[in-house]
Design goal:
It is a single chain. It is built from 14 helices and 16 strands. The chain is an alpha/beta fold. The strands form three sheets. Strands 1, 2, 5, 6, 7, 8, 9, 10, 11, 13, 15 and 16 form a twelve-stranded mixed beta sheet that branches. Strands 3-4 form a two-stranded antiparallel sheet. The radius of gyration is 20 Å and the shape is globular.
Length: about 400
Amino acid sequence: MSGFAVAVTGLGLTTPAGIGVEENWNRVAEGSPMAATDPELTGLQVDFSCRVPGFDPAASLGEHNAWRLDRHQQFALVAAREAVRDAGLSEADWDGTRVGVVLGSGAGGTSTMEAQQTKLLDSGAAKVSALTLPMGLLNMAAGQLAIEFGARGPNLTICTACASGTSAIGVARDLIRSGAADIVIAGATEAAVTPLFVAAFSRMRALSRKSSDPRAASRPFDAARDGFVIAEGAAVLILESERHALARGARVRGRVIGYGASADGHHVTAPDPEGNGAEQALRGALTDAGLTAREVQHVNAHGTSTPLNDVVESATIRRVLGEHVAVSSTKGVTGHALGAGGAIEAAYGILSLQHGCIPPTANLENPDPQIELDLVSKTARPCALEIVLSNSFGFGGQNAVLALAAS
């Protein structure tokens, strides 16, 4: 390995697998699916989702933040507070001009924008909230984190559809590599489980229709998969230059050692059927990290549970990495959190390295015979992990891959 590494010193997770790192890891390692019937989707063709269980914004953030922040901002703030605590940091410990924020999101404050559009049409302009834009704009979750933590370095919002979280962590790593920051609060957040988004994805036939058994609906790589289950949530990682982390005696959970990104240039929603863009991103991450294919032990796949994506991704993994690598998709548990998915899965990758354990792919009962990989199913697989890749691919042919290493 010869890539430029940054230390991951803190994690925060607010996902369908739970609120907090420990609860998330336990549920993902158990392979316990979280999809359930969603009362807010009653009457739609698809009426189930993966929500963050038991999320109470007032209890988590106080009444003031509960009413003035959109749900995706609330998720980000809860996860970021946990990550900063986990890193053993506080605003008093750092020079804010050397602290950046890079947050990904595919949709931003969609629930706020939908609700305020309804108010405009039903009740007129005078009833539209003055907080509509601060709650709805895509960049404002990152802005809120900068305000919360006094982070006055580079502040960026990344939108690469379902690759947004992975892209954000890669860009954050590059900010540290460039010398623009010592610490970056990085990750992604999404709260797009709304009637409009679900209806739109349903019209595209992207969502699973297994309403009779939602828990079994997200089944990456399974022969019976029929679409993804929409989810929400956030993950935040604290990235630091290794020099900075060592100087303050920080615990290092893992390292980001490589990042690859590409565009298919093929279609607005469908992946390149040959996987050329995904291959470019995978090879880019390996090259950036100074890795050979044989050194990669595990891939946390994009693995959405859609018929086309899983076949194309698996063929690409096999072509680039060979047959030895163990592959799983944690979306069997969490569903697909769109722009936040990559950050959530990068956090799980770091936890896999720490725990020496590859999470199973929930609901993988009968692997698709087209998918010729070492798929981890049913139970977690103990493994002395040193290198993990985390894949994310999004609409517009957006591809991003992270290479993660043990501390």
